[in-house]
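User: I'm curious whether this sequence folds into something compact or stays loose and floppy. Could you predict its structure so I can see for myself?
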Amino acid sequence: MFLAKDQGLLSPLLFDDKSIYTLIIKDIADGVFVGGDRLVTTKLSKRYNTSVNPIREALKQLQGEGFVTVSPNSGARVTKFEHNAMRDVFEILQLLDPYLIEWFVLEHSKEQIQTLEEILSEMEKIEEGDHVTYRNLDTYFHWTMYSQHYNKSAVELWRQKRIVLQIMHVNLPISQARVEQSLIEHREIMSAIESRDVDLSLSILKKHISNSGKYWSRHS
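Assistant: Here's the prediction. I'll summarize afterward.
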């Protein structure tokens, strides 16, 4: 497996670093810490084997991005995202994904296509019910397409909203029927990209996003 579970499959999404920020947000996205959980600096410093100051700096960054809330009485807690936040995130991603993929269809390299093929192959091997790994690989698939786009502000906004989506879905299982449908859609996207067919890529991507939105609106 080209990405071992113990390496942390979200790390490529977070610029493949081992910073305290990355470690905390990966734990949030993987459901180690859920909405409303307190994030105590001393406990986190022991968990990540670091001093308190890097923990405070990471929490400050996470607060600025909306993943952590801080109040005088209860300290830092994982943000509880309301249901309408998921609607807003989906609508933003519906605008960003087509914008970002259009550039990739025209500018992608053979190496990037190979990476996408490896990711998709790993997605097809995932055991039924391992929805955390599936979501992480799904995110990595899209990140591989979007991360090299020249508009870094759009890329960063996509990154943040995609992480919010993963946090909100972390405890929601994915039906095998939806997994299989999604894999077909990913294969269709791959085929259109390799043909450098922008219109077809956009059409399939929009269908993929729409199907995901309909599924989660019924199950969340």
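Summary: The chain has nine helices and two strands. The two ends are 31 Å apart (CA to CA).
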